[in-house]
Amino acid sequence: MEIVLRAAVTFIVLWLITRAVGRSTLGELSSFELLLFITMGDLVQQGITQEDHSVTGGLLAVGTIALLTVLLGWANVRWPRMGRFVHGSPVVILHDGRPDTKALRAERMGIDDLRTAARGQGFRNFSDIDLAVLEPNGKISFFAKDRSGASGSPEQPEVG
Over the stretch 7-30, which tens digit does the pLDDT of each residue have? Predict the structure, then answer.
């Protein structure tokens, strides 16, 4: 039973760490962060199982973490508000061609990171972007300004 409790506490701490790292870095991990997360796995295993090297101990630890992951997924479906708490909410980081420096700072994202992401989506200037949203998974959704004055979803071109 001690292994199950250790695994549950470790799961919560790891979840908090990944939330603290921030969305923008989870989308693309640096070499250092990748090594940190891989090393954490081994360190966590030692903390959970202590000196228990049995198959049963390992299965209990992995099973507990897997069960908690499934339960969180189920809870997200059952209670949609919980999804915002567990995964986070989308954040507008650029509106009408102007970066929201306060939101960028809160997400620990630099203006150069935003520029790079915009160029990756084919935008030369921020002035061409109506809206940029940092999604909970770390990706950035860009919405181009509609120069024709027509309204509509970017996914559905106007039929003329």
Answer: 888 888 877 777 666 655 445 565
| Structure token pair of residue 59 | 């299965």
Q: At what angle do helices 2-21 and 55-78 cross, to 10 degrees?
A: 50
Within this chain, do residues 99 and 135 fall inside the same structural domain, yes or no?
yes
79/106 same-domain check: no
Distance of alpha carbon 33 from alpha carbon 26, whole angstroms: 9
Residue type at position 63: G
**DSSP one-letter string for the chain:** -HHHHHHHHHHHHHHHHHHHH-HHHHHS--HHHHHHHHHHHHHHHHHHHTT--SHHHHHHHHHHHHHHHHHHHHHHHH-HHHHHHHH---EEEEETTEE-HHHHHHTT--HHHHHHHHHHTT-S-GGGEEEEEE-TTS-EEEEE--TTS----TTSPPP-
> Could you tell me the sign of the dihedral formed by the alpha carbons of 94, 99, 104, 110, in that order?
positive
One domain, residues 81 and 95: no
Containing domain of residue 106, as a range? 91-144
pTM: 0.59
Which stretches in the chain have pLDDT values below 50?
A: 25-26, 150-151, 153, 156-160
